[in-house]
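Input.
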Amino acid sequence: MRDFKANRDINVDGDVIINDSSIQQNKTIIECNSEELEAEYAHREELLREERINKGKESFGFVKFAFFSALGVSIWYFYIGDTTLAMYIVGLLTVFFLLFTAHSISNETTEFEVRQLEVLKEIEYLLRERK
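Output.
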């Protein structure tokens, strides 16, 4: 089926029989043996680590934006010669707001992370019971 390019309608004049020999039976976590559980645990940990790295990259983008915004505003006000204290306070508040946003994004637990953590906890319980 993956080889079909269905850009237009597929017209077949006879029966089409597709034999897929890659049938894979899904198992629940309880039905897995210890080796399978350990492999699943490592896989889920890797997924969780990748999710957290992606969140860190996203929040780092906010930090970079805050830094370059502050740098740009500082250079601009230095260029026009306006060096009042109020201007610096407003600039710093903006930078701190952006940093706070980045921090809150990186600490927020996503639905994907919650699901992975629950499965990891269940696997830990099963492994502990079987040892």
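The helical segments are 34-80, 85-107, 111-130.
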